[in-house]
């Protein structure tokens, strides 16, 4: 008996703090938030609250403002993921082909990641000024000076949901493309040189080499990139808040709406929005976790 | 080797956990101990820079002479109209750790704190300090909730003001000295300005600035009684007169700058100062901004928004006595300073607002404030929604959202419906 404790005891001790901290600060608080979302705590009054079942969720999904914020989030996520993957993979490919001064380019591409979202949001808020022509400022001014006037546009302040949310995604794409580049570059470097040589010896063209030999091996990396970008997009708050301010119907996403709701002390509704966001994240993350676990057990 | 490593990690983990809990405890002890020992008075505001900070500094120096036993502790949180500060304050109040006193807009916005039981009744202090005589009755009426008063106003601001550039108006042969008689006449002037080459005669900015334009149009079209009734739910928000006013608001927006959702009010004021626009609707803190930007008096003019002359749309920054505050005596001493003639003078000469007391000496103040002080006693007082005198935080949040939606896709019916729903909510 004593011997068995010696085998698993130290391991359990190591895990214990993590389990306790996670149990309380993550799962305990998720439970508490879910519980709040089932009550009628719509103000800061210290009166006893009562459970009202799923009333808050029914109200939320019947509300134009919330549905609008969910649609905005969907469009933002697609624009952000597609944009970041395109630039990230493109840069990784270029660097992978070999350039002089690779280190410098790597730093340049990675650099935006070092800037905090709130700081870049302040700058991008100015860059995305919608004035055009003679009054143009920010990016529009740059296009004007370069005689690329056809590129001038009102950014997030006018137009469809797609143009609005794609404009908001632009700074996020700028920030994270470098990170995706780093991921893919590491992936390319991890593939043994023999595989390339073998493919070349077999007469594969450069395109076929990437299509059939290299890219299939990068699918786990692509999946991680997708998950990381996806959940970052769902959490995006600071960037949107810094660019547009609160209470902008056109760009409001659930996280910003939750902040506005908290400000009016509507705890139950804010908790409801938080749980909906958690559910959306879970839809994205759970299949990924299941996939990785299956991969590991197969190995 | 394996066992050795896991033991090491176990020890590190356990020590880490202990350290975390120990830190938590020691922090609690030290903050609690300091506050009771030093007689600090933590004053929570969103006055962090510009004319606002200068005003606060004025109050602090008056506090230092009046309340020698106490030390002022600044706990200001920056952010336009207090948007960030209110979130921080809400957390502190919910955690039952209120500051000694906090800033709140007098009126409906204060109503949230009253309903939540987070502020104490200060009516007795009003009698003790003679504030019930010093403040005009119209203000006292606006402060009183169910026969009780919960805050001491530091100042009065006027919201329904238009700031104009006379040089731009002259280009279109418009008389800069007096306001257009009505919203319609104002729209006609904007048309003249456009013809004279001013692309966007009305400069405005995001959020509450657009709400203020909407409010002055509603006030002009509905008149003061129906306007005040609108926020109380006594005026039908779905009525035809409201529709007509909203249509005029839409027309006004068409004369405004395209980047209105991307800029803040000082930028909009900058358009007027740089002669790119003729007008901007903004509260009278503009006077302090112009002073600090060194814009000479002759370069700008101002009048009550067209159709609202004779009405003083007010908002007031006031200080409260939070329930269960750390040092109520220190907070009371702060409130006494805020309400005193010297305190109000020290604060308002710098912030660009006017004193709430009616016994203030007009000649102590700059030119704009003198005219506002005359209007304050002579005009009809109406509240402002954008600045918490007429609306709760929740109502204002819904209205701001509806206004930003309208700024993009201009549908009067949607705006009117959203406005009616927002007023009914809490």
From TrEMBL, chain A:
Top-level taxon: Bacteria
Family: Belongs to the binding-protein-dependent transport system permease family.
UniProt keywords, alphabetically: Cell membrane, Membrane, Transmembrane, Transmembrane helix, Transport
Membrane topology classification: Multi-pass membrane protein
UniProt domain ABC transmembrane type-1: residue ranges: 70-286
Pfam families, per database record: BPD_transp_1
Gene Ontology terms describing biological process: transmembrane transport
Record-linked PANTHER family: BLL4140 PROTEIN (PTHR43227)
A GO CC term attached to the entry: plasma membrane
Transmembrane domains' residue ranges: 12-30, 73-95, 107-127, 165-188, 209-229, 270-291
Main localization of the protein described in the UniProt heading: membrane
Compartments (UniProt record): Cell membrane
Protein name: Sugar ABC transporter permease
Automatic annotation (TrEMBL), chain B:
Record keyword Signal present: yes
Subcellular localization: Cell envelope
Alphabetical list of Gene3D superfamilies matching this protein: Periplasmic binding protein-like II (3.40.190.10)
Keyword ATP-binding: no
Domain of life: Bacteria
SUPFAM superfamilies: Periplasmic binding protein-like II
Signal peptide boundaries: 1-22
An example Gene Ontology CC term for this record: cell envelope
Keywords on record: Signal, Transport
InterPro entries (UniProt xref): Bact_solute-bd_prot1, SBP
Pfam families recorded: SBP_bac_1
Family: Belongs to the bacterial solute-binding protein 1 family.
Function summary: Part of a binding-protein-dependent transport system for a sugar.
Protein name: Probable sugar-binding periplasmic protein
Organism, as annotated: Kribbella qitaiheensis
Species classification: Bacteria, Bacillati, Actinomycetota, Actinomycetes, Propionibacteriales
């Amino acid at each position: 008996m004593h011997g068995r404790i010696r085998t698993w005891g130290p391991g359990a001790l190591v895990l214990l703090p993590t389990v306790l901290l996670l149990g309380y600060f993550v799962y305990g608080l998720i439970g508490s938030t879910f519980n709040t979302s089932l009550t009628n705590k719509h103000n800061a009054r210290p009166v006893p609250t009562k459970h009202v079942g799923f009333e808050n969720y029914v109200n939320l999904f019947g509300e134009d403002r919330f549905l609008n914020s969910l649609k905005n989030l969907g469009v933002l996520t697609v624009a952000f993921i597609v944009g970041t993957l395109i630039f990230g993979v493109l840069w990784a490919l270029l660097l992978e082909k070999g350039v002089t001064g690779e280190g410098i380019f790597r730093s340049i591409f990675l650099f935006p990641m070092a800037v905090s979202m709130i700081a870049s949001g302040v700058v991008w808020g100015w860059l995305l000024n919608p004035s055009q022509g003679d009054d143009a400022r920010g990016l529009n001014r740059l296009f004007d000076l370069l005689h690329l006037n056809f590129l001038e546009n009102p950014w997030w302040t006018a137009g469809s949901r797609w143009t609005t949310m794609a404009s908001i995604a632009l700074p996020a794409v700028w920030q994270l493309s470098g990170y995706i580049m780093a991921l893919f570059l590491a992936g390319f470097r991890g593939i043994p040189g023999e595989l390339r040589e073998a493919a070349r010896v077999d007469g594969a063209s450069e395109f076929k080499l990437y299509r059939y030999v290299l890219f299939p091996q990068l699918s786990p990396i692509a999946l991680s990139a997708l998950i990381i970008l996806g959940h970052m997009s769902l959490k995006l708050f600071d960037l949107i808040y810094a660019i547009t301010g609160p209470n902008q119907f056109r760009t409001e996403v659930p996280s910003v709406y939750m902040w506005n709701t908290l400000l009016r002390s509507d705890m139950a509704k804010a908790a409801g929005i938080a749980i909906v966001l958690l559910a959306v994240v879970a839809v994205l993350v759970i299949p990924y976790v299941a996939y990785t676990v299956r991969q590991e057990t197969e190995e | 080797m394996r066992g050795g490593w896991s033991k090491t990690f176990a020890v590190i983990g356990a020590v880490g956990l202990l350290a975390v809990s120990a830190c938590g405890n020691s922090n609690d002890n030290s903050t609690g101990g300091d506050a009771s020992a030093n007689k600090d008075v933590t004053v929570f505001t969103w006055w962090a820079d510009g004319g606002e900070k200068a005003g606060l500094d004025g109050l602090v120096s008056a506090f230092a002479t009046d309340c020698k036993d106490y030390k002022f502790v600044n706990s200001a949180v920056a952010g336009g109209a207090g948007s960030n500060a209110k979130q921080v304050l809400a957390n502190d109040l919910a955690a039952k750790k209120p500051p000694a006193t906090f800033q709140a807009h007098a009126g409906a916005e204060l109503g949230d704190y009253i309903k939540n039981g987070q502020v104490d009744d200060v009516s007795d202090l009003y009698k003790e300090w003679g504030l019930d005589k010093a403040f005009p009755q119209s203000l006292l009426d606006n402060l009183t909730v169910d026969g009780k008063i919960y805050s001491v106003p530091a100042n009065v601001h006027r919201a329904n003001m238009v700031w104009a550039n006379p040089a731009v108006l002259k280009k279109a042969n418009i008389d800069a000295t007096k306001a257009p008689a009505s919203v319609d006449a104002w729209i006609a002037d904007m048309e003249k300005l456009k013809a004279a080459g001013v692309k966007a005669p009305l400069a405005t900015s995001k959020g509450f600035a657009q709400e203020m334009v909407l409010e002055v149009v509603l006030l002009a079209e509905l008149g003061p009684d129906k306007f005040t009734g609108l926020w109380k739910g006594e005026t039908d928000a779905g009525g035809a007169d409201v529709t007509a006013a909203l249509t005029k608001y839409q027309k006004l927006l068409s004369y405004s700058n395209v980047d209105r959702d991307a800029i803040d009010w000082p930028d909009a004021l900058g358009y007027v100062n740089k002669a790119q626009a003729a007008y901007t609707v903004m509260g009278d803190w503009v006077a302090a901004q112009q002073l600090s930007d060194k814009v000479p008096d002759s370069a700008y003019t101002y009048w009550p928004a067209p159709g609202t002359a004779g009405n003083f749309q007010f908002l007031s920054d006031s200080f409260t006595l939070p329930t269960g505050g750390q040092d109520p005596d220190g907070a009371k001493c702060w409130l006494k300073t805020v309400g005193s003639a010297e305190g109000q003078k020290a604060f308002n000469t710098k912030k660009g607002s006017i004193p709430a007391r009616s016994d203030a000496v007009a000649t102590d103040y700059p030119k704009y404030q003198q005219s506002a002080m005359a209007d304050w006693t002579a005009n009809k007082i109406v509240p402002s929604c954008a600045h918490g005198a007429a609306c709760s935080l929740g109502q204002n949040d819904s209205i701001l959202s509806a206004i930003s939606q309208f700024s993009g896709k201009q549908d009067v019916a949607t705006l009117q419906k959203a406005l009616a729903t927002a007023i009914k909510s809490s």
